[in-house]
Amino acid sequence: MSDVGPCDTLKCSQTLDAHNNTPCIHRSRNVICTKQPKPIPTRWRPPSSPFPRLIFHIMCFCLTLHSDLDFMWKIFREPNGWEKFHTLYLTQINQLSTVQGLLLTTVAIFMSTPPPVKEIDYSASRPYTLLSESLVFSLFGLLSQLYTSVVGHSYRKQKTFKVLKRNRWLFLCHIIVLSIPVYIFGMSLLLLIFAISVTGFLSSSTSARMFTGATFALLFVCLFASILPSPFYSRLYKMLWGITNYVDDDDDDGDDDELDKEHSEKEAKGPA
Fold it and tell me: pTM of the full predicted structure?
C-alpha cells in the first residue's frame, strides 16, 4: 500500500486552477495546499524615471527606514494587516502623547523658574530661545497627536486602503501624515537637549563645561553603539554602498520557512 493519502486528480487540478497554480503537497493522510503570496502592486513600485525614483527612495527611507514599500506590502497582505497596523500605531501615539506632555511640563518649568545657580544660566538669550522653540513644538505635537488619535480610526477602514493602493505617492502622503506627530516630538526633544547643552557649554564654571562635555560624549558613544546592531544601520549601509550580500534580519525568513516546513512534515508523519 502506498503511504500517500488519497487525492482525486480532477479535484486537485480544479483546486490548482482556482488558486492560480497553487502547489499541492501530499502527505500521509493530509493534503497541504500553499497559496502563493500576491506580488506588490505595480503602482507601489519605484518609478522608472531616475529623478522620481531617487525622490521615492529618499522618502521611503526617511519615513519607513526602507528603500521601498515591499515590507509594507508584506504587512498589509496579511489578514487584517491594514487594521492591525493602524491599531498598533494609535496605541503608540497615545503613549507618545503621555511622553510629550511630560516634555511640555519640563520645558515650561525651565522657562518659568529662575536658575538656582548664576554660573548655569538657562535664562540667557540662546538657551531661552531654544526652550521657547521646544515649547512651541511640544504644543503643536500634542495637537497633532490628538488630531491623529481622533481621525485615526477612519484610517483603519479597508476603503481607505483601496484608495491609497491606487498610487504610490498617495500612500507616501498617508505615511507622512502618520509620521508628523513623531517628527514633531523628536524636534521638541532635540531642542530641549540643545538648550541644556548650550547652557552647560556657555557656563562660566569650568567644571560645568567639563561635565557637560563628558556627559554628551558618553551619550553619543551609547547612541552610536545602539545604532550599529539596529536594522537602521544595515539598511542605511546597503542603501549608501549598494551592498547586496549584506546579512539582514529579513534574510532569515527563508530559514523560518524551512523550519515551518519541517514542523509540518513531522506533524504529518505523526502516529497513525
Answer: 0.66
